[in-house]
Amino acid sequence: MMQENILGTEKISKLFIKFSIPAILSLTIAGVQTMVDGIFLGNFVGTNAMASVNIAAPFMQLMIGMNMIVGIGGASYIGRSLGEKDFKRAQDIFKSACLFMLGLSLIVACLGFTFNQQLATFLGANEVLLADSATYIKILALFAPFISFSFILGIFVRCIGKPNVFLFSSIASFFANIILNYVLIKQLKLGIVGAPIATGLSFTTSFLIAAIPFIKKSSVLNFFTGTFNLKFTGQLLYNGSSEGISSLATAISTFVFNMAFMEIAGEDGVSAFTAIGYISLFASLIVCGISAGIGPVISYNYGAKLDSRVKQMMSLSCKVAIVMGTILVFTIFLFGKYLILLFVSDNQAVLDLALHGSKIYAFTFFFNGLNILFSGYFTSIGDALASIIIAICRGIIFILAGISILPQFMGISGVWMTVPVAEILTLLVVFFLFKQRNLKNTSSLIED
């Protein structure tokens, strides 16, 4: 099998480039799909339409969270199974993940389509934003199965040594989204209706391309062999649960920040947070891409008991994350205004709020890269609990504590400062967990 030779024998630096770069590009492209909606709506419809998309964003984030639970959890389990040369188990895990995802995405599609008004209200839409937010959720929900499979197949394709497939599908999806947004929003004047149609169809394009390798029966993972196994499904869901918690945390924090900004600065505050959120999403997806790309490599080598290769990959990845984080901070300080102008071109109040916030929020990128990498590392080696702890700390506990305390003393600056503080505190937790794991491994070696 091609992937066994590549993942277990090829030079680590080559594997890093071969797997992480396509994953970075793929995740970044996939993640900015709603950003494309924001750019077109913000420039051709208005900042309220862009804010409506951000109000609806937790619905999309929850869908992505489901995909990440199944995809990352399954890929970790599949990778370790392939490393142990258990190809039957790997195929059964793949089949179980696909069937479970199909059922879950159909349920989400029905709920989102039927209860869009209630969801938009729950997510914080006021009278000004409710109709547009509900419409966005209703239409996007129809594409839930295609969005889900575009993600999980894109993750699984790396397990069979074909990381470029998801890259090609993501590029096609990205250009489809731009063209469709231009036609539906700019030319046909469909406004908020056109944005989710464009995004949904672009993810459908990605799904159709990502599915191609799994149609071949000769592939180690394919749609036709293997059986559904409830036990494997439970294990992959537990293993990937930290990724789901991360997405749930993103949804919760977006909701909390929207509420905080709505209270302090109204719709302008939400629009400013939306613009910064898009920039932050792009930056975070770079490190998430590294984590997703190296995940199958770590899982395989961990399963094959090639520990030195696991350490080499993590060391290289951490160095890259630190350098990229530093570059991002300086980029925001030097060129933040021009980045924000991509989303806000006609509202000086929103621009001023976003410029102020970006210089505080930027410090997030010094720390969040390492947190994301180590959360992915623990998932890849099957230590779901450690990964869950990191996800809960950085996305829920420290965020809720910060948003409750900091604005009391610092006003709107305290809201912006919540995320950097949460990342710093989480990094301390990461160091503790990694140290504890090393002590446990050392103890095991001594006992052996």
TrEMBL record:
Membrane-spanning ranges: 15-35, 55-77, 97-115, 135-157, 164-185, 191-215, 236-261, 273-299, 320-340, 360-378, 385-406, 412-434
Source superkingdom: Bacteria
Membrane topology according to the record: Multi-pass membrane protein
Record's keyword annotation contains Membrane: yes
Alphabetized InterPro entries for the sequence: MATE_fam, MATE_MepA-like, MATE_MepA_subfamily, MdtK-like
Organism name: Turicibacter faecis
Similarity comment: Belongs to the multi antimicrobial extrusion (MATE) (TC 2.A.66.1) family. MepA subfamily.
Localization, UniProt: Cell membrane
Protein name, per record: Multidrug export protein MepA
Keyword Transport: yes
UniProt feature coiled coil, ranges: none
Record keywords, A-Z: Antibiotic resistance, Cell membrane, Membrane, Transmembrane, Transmembrane helix, Transport
